[in-house]
Amino acid sequence: MTARFDVAVVGLGAMGSAALAFLAARGVKAIGFDAYFPAHALSSSHGDSRLIRLGYFEDPSYVPLLKRAYQNWRSLEARLRTDILTITGVLQIGAPDGKIVSGTRSSCELHGLAHEALDKAEMARRFPAFQLDDHEIGLLDPQGGYLRPEAAVMGYLKLAAEDGAVLHFGEKVTAVEPDDAGVTIVSDTGQYRVKKIVVATGSWIAELVPQLRRAAVPIRQVVAWYQPQDGFATQPQRMPCFLRDEGAEGSYFGFPAIGVDGVKIGRHAHFREPIDPNQPNPPVNEADLALLDGFIRKRVPGAAGLRVKATTCRYTMLPSEDFLLDHMPGEKNVVVASPCSGHGFKFTSVIGEILADLAIDGQTDLPIDAFSFARI
Ligand SMILES: Cc1cc2nc3c(=O)[nH]c(=O)nc-3n(C[C@H](O)[C@H](O)[C@H](O)COP(=O)(O)OP(=O)(O)OC[C@H]3O[C@@H](n4cnc5c(N)ncnc54)[C@H](O)[C@@H]3O)c2cc1C
User: Fold this and answer.
1) 54, 204, 322, 350: which to mutate for ligand 1, most atoms within 8 A of CB?
2) Which residues contact 5 (CB under 8 A, 6 or more apart)?
3) CATH fold group of domain 5-46+150-215+321-375
4) CA 78, CA 160: separation in Å to the nearest integer?
5) 159/32 Cα distance (integer angstroms)
C-alpha cells in the first residue's frame, strides 16, 4: 500500500492537537485520529483552566522549554485572534524550605526570573483570599497564570485543518504496525499507510505503546468549583493562581474566580488511585468532597461558599513524574508523547513543535534529553 499521508497523529488531546497543527504548518500531509471528540470528558485536557508558571520548582531544566512554550502560546493567540493565556501571577505558598517554595526560588535565581517573597502580613494585605500559617510565605511568580484548555485544543485543530490536515473524529486506532518504510495503521473502520506516526493517546498510551504498560499509570483526579463568599478578594486581579505545599499531605492547586462557577481547586494526584482508562471515570465521592471542602475552608476561606460543581479527570503518571518525548525504541517512524504526569498542559505549545520536529526531521534542537525512553 502506498503512503497517502506523511504523518498521522493518533490522539488529538492537548499533545496531539498541537502536534498536528505544527505538522500541517510545516507543509506535510497530515491526518489526525481521535477515538472521541477532542477535549472530551474522558480525556485529560478539559476543565476550563490549566496553570502555567515560569519558575519551575520541579526542576530548573524545564525553564528553557517553558520560555518557548510562552512564545508559542502567544503565536497561537495571534493566529486565532483569541485569548488562551491570561497572566494573573502564580503564588507558591508554603514553608520557605519546602519543596515548592524553595524549588521555585532556586529555579528563578538560576534563570534570573522575576519573583517576590511575601510574608504572612504582606500576603494578607495584597492577597487577602489566602490563609497562611505564621512561618509560611507566598513566593509570587509574576509571569504565571492560566490557560484555557478547550480553546487551545480546538484552536490547534482549527489551524491544523486550515493548513490542510485531515481530521477523523470518533475513529479509534486499534493497531500500529511500523516497518522500515513507514507505518500501517488499523482503526475500527479502516486501514491507512503513512510514513511516520505520532502516538499521543493520553491515558490509553500503553495500548499502542506496549513498552509503557508498567510505567504509565492512569490515576483518578478530582477538581471542584466554589462560588466565593468574598467576591472582591477572589477576583483574578487580587487572587493569583496558586500552588500550596502541605508537606507530607502533598500539594494543592487553584484558580481565582474566572467564570460563573467561581474558584477551582484540586489536590495534585488526589488519592493516587489507579484507574482503567476504558471504564468511565469513577464518580466523585464523599471522601473526595471532604478533602477539597476541608482545604478550601482552611486555606482559602473567602472562597469557601457554595460548592457548585465537582468532577473527575485523569492524570497519567510516569515513575519519575516527568515527560516522555522520544522515538519508540528501535522504531524510527514512531514518535511517542506521554500524557506528562499531571503537569504537561502548559508545555503543549512547545511539545507540539517538538513532536513535529521528531516526526519530520528525526530530531529537535529543543532540550528533550531528559525525556527519553532510556530514562524510564
Ligand atoms: C484535572 C487536571 C488538572 C491538570 N492541571 C494541569 C495544570 O494546571 N497545568 C499543567 O500544565 N497540566 C495540568 N494537567 C495535565 C495536563 O492537562 C495533561 O498533561 C494533558 O492534558 C495531557 O494531554 P494528552 O493529549 O496527552 O491526553 P488527552 O487529553 O487524554 O488526549 C488523548 C486523546 O487520545 C485519544 N485516544 C486515545 N486512544 C486512542 C486511539 N487508540 N485512537 C484514537 N484516539 C485515541 C483520546 O480520545 C484523547 O482525546 C492537569 C490534568 C488534569 C486531569
Assistant:
1) 204
2) 29, 30, 31, 166, 192, 194, 195
3) FAD/NAD(P)-binding domain (3.50.50)
4) 15
5) 13
Pocket lining: 85 vs ligand 1, CB cutoff 6 Å: no
- The secondary element (H helix, E strand) that includes residue 20 is helix 14-25
Q: 89-146+217-317: same fold as 5-46+150-215+321-375?
A: no
Residue-range domain boundaries for the chain: 5-46+150-215+321-375, 89-146+217-317
The CATH number assigned to the domain with range 89-146+217-317 reads 3.30.9.10
Q: Which amino acid is at 17?
A: S
pLDDT by residue, tens only, the chain of 376 residues: 777 899 999 999 999 999 999 999 999 999 999 999 999 999 999 999 999 999 999 999 999 999 999 999 999 999 999 999 999 999 999 999 999 999 999 999 999 999 999 999 999 999 999 999 999 999 999 999 999 999 999 999 999 999 999 999 999 999 999 999 999 999 999 999 999 999 999 999 999 999 999 999 999 999 999 999 888 999 999 999 999 999 999 999 999 999 999 999 999 999 999 999 999 999 999 999 999 999 999 999 999 999 999 999 999 999 999 999 999 999 999 999 999 999 999 999 999 999 999 999 999 999 999 999 999 8
Residue 177 makes CB contacts below 8 A (sequence gap 6+) with 183, 184, 185, 186
Atom 38, ligand 1: residue with shortest CA distance: 201
Closest protein CA for atom 22 of ligand 1 = 339
d(CA 348, CA 84): 12
3-state secondary structure at position 231: coil
